[in-house]
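=== RUN LOG ===
request id: a7f3
mode: sequence -> structure
chains: 1
length: 841
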Amino acid sequence: MRGVPMLAMLVHFNRMAVKALLRFKLHTLISFISLGFGFICFISAALISNYSDNFDQHFPNADRIYNLVIRNTRDTGTPDFFPIVNQPAARYLRAYFPDVPNIVRGSSGGLSQDVTIDGEAHTIATRYVEDRFFDIFPLDTLSGIEAGEALPPNSVMITEEAARRIFGRTDVVGERMLIANQADVVIAAVAKTSEFPSHLNSAIPLFNSELFVPMDIQEQAWRQRRIDAGLNPAVDNWGNQSDYVYIEIPEDMDFDLESFHRQLDDFVKSNIPEERAEFMTYELIPVNELMMATLSFVTGGVSIVKVLIVAGTLVLMIGCLNYSNLVIAQLSLRSQEIGVQKILGSKRGLLILQYCYESFLFVSFTLLIVLAVMFLALSTLQSASMIGVDPVMLLDPSLWVSIAVVVVVIVAIAGGYPALRTVTVPLISMLRPKGSSSYSGRLRATMVAVQFFISGTLMILAMVMFAQNVAMSQQLDGDVADPKIIVTTPVSTFSVDPDLLATQLKQYPGILSVTQVAIRPWDISMSSVSLSQSSDLNAVTIEAAIFNVGYEFTETMDVPFIAGRNFSRERTNDRFPNFSDLSPSSGPFSVLIDDDLAQAFGYENAGAAIGATLYRHMGAPTIENEMAIEIVVIGAIGAQKYQFVDFGSFGVQGNIVYLMPDNANNMIIKISKNNINDSLQHIDDTWNQLMPEMTLKRDFVDNLFYQAYKLFLGISAAIGTLSVFGFLIASIGLFGNATFITNIRHQEVGIRKVMGASSGRLLRMLLLNFAKPILIANVFAWPVGYLIANTYVSMFATRTEFGALPFIMSLLLSVLIAVLAVLSQSWKSARMRPAMALRYE
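=== RESULT ===
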């Protein structure tokens, strides 16, 4: 063969490859489906990763734009790499780094703001930005100010899509709107729809921006609230983490990231209050990592992109193992061909080259078809105006490096390994009509076990995710509970006393109760307070999540009231006063607590803590001087509904409820499920009667859930789809493998039948043989699946009790699919006449 020209050798290799494909048609189809689905999952995950890496890269100087993140210097239970930073940080950084002019604060986006235009209320996703924001992000405009220009005072920039949605047109420069019934502004520009992915324009509600508003407008409202409360409006609120801080490094600046981080360490020590500086510092991340860093906060520190990449890679691994297993089995039946080649003088290297080449051809053909499918899919998404999606994404070099590595691994396992095995097989064995059975059955079983271990783990996770979705949705009012209506118009902007509105509303029987809350239902946000059992300012404190509410909170929000008494209008000290009215001798003021907080203080439960005295530790910027305010527990409550994230992982050890309606800016109305339409009409009529000059904006609380939970529904759907793909690939691979193994074991079956074994006994033997690696795989999949699933559900305030059902279901599905996949082949082999099995021996 040495003298054969290269072209002739390739022609021979191609002919042998086609011959093998035609000989094993069923298994070729199974291998194609397995690898095809695996490649689709893997490439899709890789494209999502590359897509996220390209966020905001179209802006000038994108490689020098960074975001400030908070890093923990010790274990505090709070998020690490947190990009929503302390409110005064940008102002102090500008003074500390005078050579970096573009240090800008901007709200984190996705803020649903009510605006009134020509007497009609609308909700719009608003982002507040400081001056020079558009120096860093020069958004192209259709009309109005030019790209990169700062917004004039009391003006806003609206996006093209928002202008069309609200006005039905884009020529809206000069139109006026009232923001939150307070700020009268004029539209100064219309931003073009971006053709590139950006955290400023996203389908994820957490990031979407439809209206850009000067930060001064928000600051003025905040200062006015502090003045009204008798507090210093100029105080630095380091405890408020609500904004992003963007830093653009000048092009002419000699910049080293590690050196800048050391300067940030010095900045923290010299500028941030000592009680915070002792456990935190600042670092920078590239702006294209901002979205994933923010989402990691929502997902408990887990990167969504990395999860999808791992899941996609695992599905591809199942497909690769499937294909490799089938090729190894094929080689056992092609042993005559290999034996003849060895007799004719083929060397080991040439055999390895031939079968590696065959595998390379098949993998390349499958990959070519997959790329064509992906090209069509990306073209369809591009036609649907999905921002930043383009078939050109398939040309990304990093994608091809990953694909090349995968192809090399598949070719090495499916092509190289079987050829190497031929060296150890005697020629006489290879020339048997039924082929050699010397290929490692242990290796085949291991490959099957690994496939079902991966697919079983993914299946467990998918079922737990589904159960978690059900658990979360059970908090919804739906058709079962009396629905809650949220008035999205801030209470602080009402032109009448909120108590008057509540009284008028409750005159109608369909209005069951009315309350106020500081944090909207389903919001991914939390405020905490420091509590102790001593008035000593140096006492050890416990952090608790605080809920400032109005009267009738537990009745309206369906919070279980376990023991004690509720807040009462007749008891003056039930109501926590404005901060400006506090003094060290104030109190005691009444609070409600839950079991977690009571247990943190050493009580058996919240009921046992009724009457207990605690102290709320307060200081700047909430009040001027540090003090401990006495509070007393008057009631025990159960778990709160309408909660999304479990903030226990952030260091809080329970919940405490204060009656403080002046600090609860959202009105919630509970209406009768038997009289919804008339109740809604009464709300509208009462509002128009009391505040005709203001437009009412209301929504069902259930709708807030779907807005907040959309991300997790998408994640669970993606993992569920990948798990189904992985399971199907493993199952059809097992079916293909069964045809080979039963063929190889014909002699064994024949001998056993001669020795008296019945067909039923042989069938059980064969089925058990196939099921054994699957059972072993599930033994390993259960603990791994439990750890992953438990980590996932621990992120949520309401957790599913998944128990053993997902694990048993995964096992039963695995065994059932395995039995169905191999039953026909096993039955055919068990029913074979001994003479047919032994006629060549």
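=== NOTES ===
The first helix runs from residue 6 to 23.
Residues 442-476+702-841 form one domain.
=== END ===
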